[in-house]
Amino acid sequence: MSASSNSNSTTRSSFSSALEERRWNRLGDMMSRFHEYFKREFNTVYELADGSFSRRGLSLPLYLRTARDMNNHLTMHHTIEERHIFPILAKKMPQFSNKADGAHILSHKGIHDGLENLDRLISKWTEDPKSYSPAEMRECLDGFREVLFHHLDEEVADLRGESLQKYFTLEEVESIAI
Ligand SMILES: [Fe+2]
Ligand SMILES: [Fe+2]
Q: How far apart are CA 74 and CA 59, in angstroms?
């Protein structure tokens, strides 16, 4: 039993101490907290789309505000990443490149196509609340769910310490502020 737990711990980690592991994982851990929040926001907007927002005490305008908040949070997050974080990471990690082959930028574009559709629908329903359609809302959200959730997980995986240490020193990683 102790032999197997020993072998687990030696194969599990390439860090010399728990403290070092935490330092290498700081970026990924912070990103994960943001991303888990975005997933909860998306799932709430999806769940309440059928009109159950009213049972939670939300009017249609307030529900639409929730959807717009999610849109704004994701847009702001991606703008900050693309301006301040990806350019540093892209020096050594091609998946963060802002060229056509940059996987994360491509995902951001896919997500934002979906968010633009959502924005159009929110504007339409704000002007004409009677036209609100639960099916149309869920269809719109389903249209970018996969690219969004895949990206949120993949970006965190790329920012885990074990990934970063293939490309950067710990000092370089700790100089990246998010
Ligand atoms: Fe992110
Ligand atoms: Fe991102």
A: 23
